[in-house]
Description:
- The structure holds two protein chains of two kinds.
- By secondary structure, chain A is α/β, with parallel strands linked by helices.
- Chain A has helices spanning 2-21, 39-54, 68-76, 87-94, 105-116, 139-144, 176-183, 198-205, 221-224, 252-264, 267-278, 284-294, and strands at 30-34, 58-62, 82-86, 121-123, 133-138, 162-165, 189-192, 211-215, 226-229, 241-246.
- Helix content of chain A is 42%, strand content 16%.
- In chain A, the strands form three sheets. Chain A has a five-stranded mixed sheet. In chain A, strands 3-10-4 form a three-stranded antiparallel sheet. A two-stranded parallel sheet of chain A has the order 1-2.
- Chain B has helices at 2-12, 23-55, 59-71, 74-85, 90-113, 117-125, 130-160, 173-181, 185-213, 216-222, 225-234.
- In chain B, 80% of the residues lie in helices and 0% in strands.
Amino acid sequence: MNRKLLLSLTALAVLAAACGGTTAPAAKGTIVVGGFGFPESSILAQVYGQALAHDGYTVTYKLNLGQREVVAPAIKSGQIDLYPGYAATDLEYYNNKAGEATGDVAATTAKLNSYLQPLGLVALSPSAAVDQNAFAVTKATQAKYNNITKLSDLAPIAGQLTMGAGPECLTRPYCIPGLEKTYGIKFKAFKALDTDGPLTRAAFANGTIQVGLVFSSDGDLNALGLVVLQDDKHLEAADNVVPIIRTAVATDNVKKILNNVDKNLTTADLVAMNAQVSIDHKDPDVVAKAYLQAHNYFV
Amino acid sequence: MTLLYNTLRWLTDPAHWQGADGIPIRLMQHIQLSAEAVAIGALIALPIGIGLGHFGRFGNLAINISNAGRAVPSFAILVIAFQAFGLGDAPIILALTALAVPPMVTNSYVALREVDADIKEAARGMGYRELAQLVRVEIPLAVPLIMAGIRTSAVQVVATATLAALIAGGGFGRYIIDGFATQVYTKVLAGAILVAILALATELGLSALERVLTPRGLRSLQAPAARRATAYKTA
């Protein structure tokens, strides 16, 4: 009897201390932010998490969880509340690869939400930042051919250029067949290399290829002098960065904070932040904090 | 069974016998890579093996050093050489040469050591000088074993040259890597079969060369007893 009383008294005391001791903004609840097993995901998780923490939420991180096969069950079971998703890839995960993702980000996100809703999840407004297959040229090639900026510019000159990518590019709809069908691009030759790896970089460096498949948010694009050509006819599925969150956690205030972040996030931001992690070896949380500070989220 | 049948169809499809990705071009690339590596390897390995075998010194050291090279996977050499030389044939030639050297060093060393001491003494007694004795007596007698080393190297190199495709090189490895990437397994199997056929052809071709290079006297010694008897009679 005495013991029980003591326990409740202690609990009361702790509670009182907790309430009285807060000088930071009043705690609004806890949000667990998860992330995939690659640096860009950790950076984005930190950007979302730190923006929420600044508004008074208690944020904990479960980063580097691995593939979507780990992350999706974790959010479904409530082990995490939020992760930085990619509209098209997440749609194709939740619809069991039904092939519904398109280059239209709004439609893709809407479709994604139709699959998320029954799971108690929701995808918020997608950002303009994309991490998807992209076709890059060197700055020298760009200058040589009237400063081309988009894939449709490539069609008339492709006959003079060699394209490099992984061998599977020859048969995948997002790659050579898609370029030919959507843009009418036919290259002089195709060089089987790798998918956005060291072979592609070496081939760019020694001039074996003029056009290569990369990912649009690669941190080393600027350092390599590569320019991504704009996918102006939306061949690639819209892999825009979009926060996927448990509906129970997605209060109006949380949505407002995350949408505010996504409103300003661009692919160039992703490239810059990835570069700071992959080339300058900074930690994702430091990079995310610097980004938020530079964009005046903390004032 | 259907996979085998489809692979046969793939191999006999005329479309696969022309163009930059056709079997003739890939065959030439494969032979070129392998031949270059074996030739460079022979230039390095044979003088070392023959020299050490002739003088009978440091043989174990040379064999152990070159065998240590065998312990390093060709793939690792390839990746490291790619970092150093970048895109092109240099990394694969380097990796294949490293693979080609040890059997040739070992075999040529042993071949020279195995030459009968009595024969060497006889040669010296007949007035052969060091170099003449080596070139005109010892090496001809060592040909079968030296050639066995070259053959072992060449077959290994032909089989391993498939790695070239991993660093965007040519050869039959392209079919294996590209087929795997596009999940066309008939292409993978066709590539493997082509490599196996080429390795077999290399073995047979070099065996024929070995027979030509082997001195007549030695050849008849190796022949079956019945034929040997007649050979001696006619000789």
